[in-house]
Amino acid sequence: MPTDTTFVPPLAGPRSPVHRPWHAPVTQPGPVLFATLFTVDSIARAIVAPVLPLEALRLLGSARDVSIMVTIVGIAGVVAALILPGIILRWRPRATYLLSIALLGIASLAMMTAHIAGFGLGWMLRAMAAAGLLGLLNIYIAAFIGKKALAKSEPLRTFFSATAWAGGPFLGIRLYEIDPALPFVVSAGTALLLFLYFRRLRLQAPVPGIAQRSNPVANIRRYFGQKRLTLAWILNFGRETWWVTLFTYAPIYLVQNGMPQVAAGNLLSACTAMLFVALVFGWLGRRIGLRRFIAGAFLWVSAATFGVVWFHDRPDIASALLIVSAVGAVSLDSVAVVTFLRAVRSFERPQMTMVFSIFRDAAALIPPAIFAVLLTFFPLWTVFLVNAGFALICAGLALKLPRRL
After folding, report:
1. Where are the bilayer-spanning segments (predicted)?
2. Is 184 within the bounds of a domain?
3. Based on the structure, what is the number of domains in the chain?
């Protein structure tokens, strides 16, 4: 990526505060702006988060069939992530970001049809939109924020989005009980606001300084040929797997164990409310070292999730343990992406960013596919057992990170 396109902040001096408009933090490239974009995007996705598995369960009838649908959705997300580099090279990042926002709004409108075909199509479009939005936001962050500031920028982004993910499930499940279409309407409206906001910013990230055609297969081969990037992908895949398990199977687990639907929204909101202390976790990670911090957070997640398995017949205790486990998961959200941002080379950042972003869609594809098989023979708590075991493996892998990350 050409270095002469990097954003340069205003020169420091006694007059700069006078000429810097009050709205600069949310209209000019920087940590606050990118955190704001991520927050509005998160609101559109969080509102329907607790509704998706319950609506899928209503339409399909079993947790196993829901797993199969989630697997199909994951495939759509992976495909979107693979073709995005080529779209970015042709359309530039700004237009591609606007396209992703539009898909997010269309997805919500399709899912509110209350028909299996419309719901399934909408869920796939939502996965494709999320892949685009998250991948492109990483490109903007990498282009406008220096590597030394990343450890501070990421916790800020997580902290800003806490409102969306703490309040979204809580509100969404209650809207769903009033009218099943309401959360999707709110989600679509939020996507429209995000579209208008980003269009108004006229913010363009640098385009790759390469002439060759983007090849997804070559990008994947290049990415996983680098050990540090491979390790970053596995660790972020591991922490995303926990969230996918929580958002997909925890609501089904509670409803199947006799808990009201609002309990599902309350649980998801309680877990994501931990995002409010993301800045503290980010500071703690820098204080003790990201290598040890990430390993310890995975170990915490593993221990608490094993507890969910032990108390699987007590949904009240299991819910409390999921909230405890969320402390470790949010700790990982605060800093884990830094493992990638500090390892990627600037000249191949767009291509490697798209491959890295696949971890989210892979987490929505691979675990549910495995769970679909397991749930054919074993009870629902098996998904938490597998998740706890994988978190333990990730704790060991995290010790292979560079000591001075």
Report:
1. 66-89, 96-117, 123-146, 158-175, 181-198, 231-252, 264-284, 293-311, 317-341, 353-374, 380-399
2. yes
3. 1
